[in-house]
Automatic annotation (TrEMBL):
GO terms for biological process: CTP biosynthetic process; GTP biosynthetic process; UTP biosynthetic process. Its cofactor is Mg(2+). This is Nucleoside diphosphate kinase. Residues 2-136 form the Nucleoside diphosphate kinase-like domain. The gene is ndk1. The keyword Cytoplasm applies. InterPro entries: NDK-like_dom, NDK-like_dom_sf, Nucleoside_diP_kinase. It comes from Kitasatospora setae (strain ATCC 33774 / DSM 43861 / JCM 3304 / KCC A-0304 / NBRC 14216 / KM-6054) (Streptomyces setae). Its EC number is 2.7.4.6. PANTHER family: NUCLEOSIDE DIPHOSPHATE KINASE.
Amino acid sequence: MSQRTLVLLKPDAVQRGLAGEIISRIERKAGWRFAAMELRTFDRATLEQHYAEHVGRDFYEPLLAFMTSGPSIALIVEGENVVPGIRALAGATDPLAAGAGTIRGDYATITRENLIHASDSAESAEREIKIFFPAQA
């Protein structure tokens, strides 16, 4: 079943020069394609919409500070089973729990700065794409 998902390459991925490697991993998956890609520094208002479910949690403000600290790359990826596929490729949120061969398992160092965001469901992907790519929604 063809799907669309939102992927964010976070500021640490861009700063550490890992964006090309991560994009290459996604490209190598047969049948997946990029429908949109943009380098930008996210503003707080956009991130507040994206992370609304985390308001009030102890990691919320540090997460917003990190995500506004430098440029990120926002992507829409389309393809067969792309939502669970990108999540598997990304690995567990905690890099210590992420398996070898996953993006986070191979490159991430701490949970907050874990290189990549991938929508966790088709419904989340639809909502998130509207936030980051309203013209593509």
